[in-house]
Design a protein that fits this description.
Radius of gyration: 23 Å
Shape: globular
Organism: Acidiphilium cryptum (strain JF-5)
Structural class: mainly beta
CATH topology: Porin
Number of strands: 28
Oligomer: single chain
Protein name: PEP-CTERM system associated protein
Length: about 550
Amino acid sequence: MALLLVPALVAREGRAVAQATSDAAASSSSSASSSSSSAGVTDSSMTSAAPFGTAVRLGALPSPFASSGGLEGPAPLPRGLEFTPSIGLSEEALVGGFPKSYGFDNEFITSLTPGLRVVGTAPIGRVSLDYRPQLELYARESRDSGISQSLNGSFETQLIPGRLDLSASAFLTQQATEGGLAPGGSAAIAPNARTTTQSYLVSPHYRYRFRGLGRLDLVYLAQYTRQTGNSAALSGSQLPYFVPNDVFSQTGSAQFTTVPLFPDLDDVVLVTASQDTGTGVLDGSSQMRAEDRVRYAFLPQEFLVVSGGYENLRYQGFPPTHIADAVWSIGLHLHPRRDVDIRLAYRHRDGFDAPYLRATLQLTPRTTLSASYSETLATQAQAIAANLAGSTVSAGGQIVATGTQVPLLLTNNSLSVQSGLFRTRQFSIATITRWSRDRLSLNLVRSDETLVANAPGTSGFSQRSLSASATFSHQLTRSATVSAYFDYSTLDTPQGGALAGLGQSPVYTGALTGTYQTANRLEFDLQLAVTNTSLNGYGVSPGIAGNGVQASITFGVQKVF
């Protein structure tokens, strides 16, 4: 949203014209990249997913040695490109809670995971890529054996210094089709109950400064998003709520940011248009928005921001969705100190009124807080694409929001994967507290999806989830670390859904992990994890899964070259 993405860089009293133009333009880069999502007119509010970290294979937890990134700011990239290959081998023993074709509920999974991390800055640009395909071999249910993949990547370069930039991103992961798990994934489930989600984008950004007038930013974004896996239907229904889908989106935006019209006032005009080609609700859909935003600095780093304009949105589906309406917003952007940034607004867009919040602040020298609230109109695949467009990859291989560096979770394993169009309300809050050898993170996320339209040939249902989690890690020595993780999650489908009849039945997940790293970059991991799965769908009745509790012990070794 152009309204709230302009950073507080204009001083209260008259600043040189060239500096004012440069400051406003630096902000437009962020707003353009966030607005240029698969939806075209969506904005960075869709990047406010709870900071649970990068999604990985279900059942895997991040290593305590992984780059913390996130709220403390980005880790600097090394000069030149560093190529770091690795190979990992693990054995996971599962007891209970794993659905089997022949009634087994125990399993042994051997995983071989080669990996490649490329990070650094070079003449070709800034690169951060982490790719980890994984071969999974199931001892008892051999037909489940196969390859899963995880990819996070970003690339930025200047084609014409100061004028033309090019950025690209790639994302690939797997999520639980029926949902009902911790958002980041915490239980092992069969491959036929997973959805593979991938999204790729490339975006050139041209900027030109008109001396004494302002700055023009032109952005084009091409993005391809695909979700594959087995179709999923409700019990007794002939129509699936999820089918494999893909969409190719093209978005163009133009933004002009004026020099200060008066010592405390500037103006931004933004026009964005998007066209989608693919399947389902997004096949042949289009979105256009034009708005004008005025910002007034009532204090040197505190702003009143007001905008107004018009939008025209079209989505296919049943019923077809067409919104031709005015858009407006009034809000505040508070940036009194470097460690405080708060954007708060009440706005009308996507056909409804809603508040908006995005804030990061340093509560104490050791504790940082991040909070967000947004309401958007989009498909799940569209929201993932928009989040990717407003993110980058840290030096540690973690997906973070552009600018704030808050970790993002692009897929949410609490929610069932669906193909329809939703009005999504999402609130998240997270804190990270650091000591010399300890780290504590607390996370809360509430997601509410209200069904607006079904994709042709599918059914759908509204759903809402709540998740609260805590992670504590302690560094025993320079080589050894232990960590504990706990998550409480619920999924409620009031209209009847994948977990219908279970109400707001909770899922509890706990894990203890120990890691030891040798001087020759050999890492040993031991993890104990327990989660109750009897209240999840998993495609089977709880009786097949024994007592419904899945316990696992995993031993792994990884060599980094």
